[in-house]
Amino acid sequence: QVRLVESGGGLVQPGGSLRLACVASGFMFNNYAMAWYRQILGKGRERVAIISAFGGTQTYDDSVKSRFTISRDNAKNTVYLQMNNLKPEDTAVYYCFAHSPISSAEDYWGQGTQVTVSS
């Protein structure tokens, strides 16, 4: 059974930091690129960051460059998103996404974790 379980969300003040984690199971994690998406209430999901299967390449949306860092630990089947200098506009539900190297039919989503940035 495939599972992606996110954790680390919560309420933080502007300028603060959070670290999200996503633990994967049930598929060959090492073969998958992993990404974080977010969805603001009333809007579609947007990709925040993606990391290649072995972590050599990371790509970020312009809105989070220099503030967010995506990383992975293949030994722990875990992908992380370190979020620094958070802004109110970062408030969203953040989703972990596993991008199959073979077929979109084998892509997987986590259940999401809420991040709220507010004073």
Short description:
The chain is an all-beta fold and 119 residues long. The chain has strands spanning 3-7, 10-12, 18-25, 33-39, 45-51, 58-60, 68-73, 78-83, 92-99, 108-109, 113-117.
Describe the structure.
- The protein is mainly beta and 119 residues long.
- 0% of the residues lie in helices and 50% in strands.
- It contains no helices and 11 strands.
- The strands form 2 sheets. Strands 2, 4, 5, 6, 9, 10 and 11 form a 7-stranded mixed beta sheet that branches. Strands 1-3-8-7 form a 4-stranded antiparallel beta sheet, with no helix packed on it.
Q: Which parts are unreliable, with pLDDT below 50 for 5 consecutive residues or more?
A: none
Rg on CA atoms, Å:
14 Å
What are the secondary-structure elements, in order, as H or E?
EEEEEEEEEEE
Structural class: mainly beta
Termini Cα gap: 40 Å
Number of strands: 11
Mean pLDDT: 96
The amount of beta strand, in percent, is: over 45%
Residues in helix, %: under 10%
Keywords:
mainly beta, globular, 11 strands, seven-stranded mixed sheet, 50% strand, four-stranded antiparallel sheet, 119 residues
Write the layout of secondary structure elements.
Blueprint (H helix, E strand, L loop, with lengths): L2 E5 L2 E3 L5 E8 L7 E7 L5 E7 L6 E3 L7 E6 L4 E6 L8 E8 L8 E2 L3 E5 L2
Parallel strand pairs: 2-11
Antiparallel strand pairs: 1-3, 3-8, 4-5, 4-9, 5-6, 7-8, 9-10, 9-11
